Amino acid sequence: MTSSTAFAFAGTTPPTSTTTTTTTTTPPPSSCESYYTAACGKTGTALKSALNGIIKNQTKLSYDQVWDALKSTDQDPANSNNVILLYSGRSQAKSANGGGVDDWNREHVWAKSHGDFGTATGPGTDVHHLRPEDVSVNSARGNLDFDNGGSAVAEAPGSYADGDSFEPRDAVKGDVARMLFYMAVRYEGNDGYVNLEVNNSVSNGTAPYMGKLSVLKQWSQQDPPDAFEKRRNQVIFDSFQHNRNPFIDHPEWVAAIWP
Fold it and tell me: pLDDT of 156-214, one tens digit each?
C-alpha cells in the first residue's frame, strides 16, 4: 500500500513536497486516492468487496484502549479538555468517563447485541462506530435500530425514541448512518468476525443486522460529512486503527453499494 503521506483526503492539508507538480487543482470528490486504488471504478458488490479488502487492514484496540482513543477522536474543537457527546451534543470533561449517572461511556452505534459480538477485540472495539455518550442516554438508546420518530429523549435535545427505534439529533444523523455503513462493509464474515449487514427492518433483535436502511441513506444525504467527522476519521487513521471510513471520504459510495 502506498504510504499514507502520499495522498490527502478532504479536510486535510497535503504534505509539503520538493517534487514539481503540474497542477494544484484539488481532485473532485469522485476521484480515487491511492488508499482506495483497488476500489476505483467499481460499484455494487464489487465495490463493497474491494473496500472490505482495504479497510480490514487495521490495528485492533482493546476495549480499555477505546477510552483513550475516544478522548482524542471526539475532542471538543473549542476545549481540548472535553469531548463532544454523540447524541446529547454536550461538551463534557474527558475525565468524567465511567459508569456514574452523569458520566460518559462508550456507545456502540452498531449495537453490540446485533450480532452478539460484545466488547471483544474486533467489532466490539472498532472506534469507527464507538462514540462518547452520557450514560443515561446510552441506556435510553439501548440496542434500538435507527428510524425517524418517537418521544423526546431526556438529556439529548433533538433525539427521539420509541419501542423499536432511535432517532439522533439532526447534526449527527449522517454520522450515524456512515458508521453503520462502515461496519457493514468492514465486517463481512471473512476474517473470523461476524458478518454484519444493514437492512430495512427495525425489528432485528440479536440478528447481525441494523436498520432502517432507507432512512439511513436519507440521513447520509441530508447530513454530509462535516469538519468534526472528517477530523475524527483522520485521527483514527493516523493514530489508532490506521484504516478509514470510506463513506466519510466518498459519501457517493453509499448509493453505489445500496442503490
Answer: 999 999 999 999 999 999 999 999 999 999 999 999 999 999 999 999 999 999 999 99
What distance in Å separates the CA atoms of residue 55 and residue 46, rounded to the nearest whole number? 14
- DSSP, collapsed to helix, strand or coil, labels residue 257 as helix
The answer to whether 249 and 255 have CB atoms below 8 angstroms apart is no
CA distance 73 to 66: 10
Q: What are phi and psi of 82, to 5 degrees?
A: -120, 165
Bond preceding residue 212 cis, omega within 30 of 0: yes
Residue 107's DSSP bridge partners are 131
Q: What is the pTM of this model?
A: 0.88
Q: How many CB atoms lie within 10 A of CB 121?
A: 14
Determine contact, residues 34/2, Cβ cutoff 8 Å.
Answer: yes
Using DSSP's 3-state secondary structure scheme, residue 105 falls into strand
Instruction: Give the integer Cα–Cα distance in Å for 203 and 29.
Output: 35
101, HSE (Cβ side, Cα atoms, 13 Å): 1
Task: Quickly count: other Cβ atoms within 10 Å of residue 64's Cβ.
Answer: 9
**Exposure string for 34-57, b = 16+ CB within 10 A, e = fewer:** ebbeebeebeeeebbebbbebbee
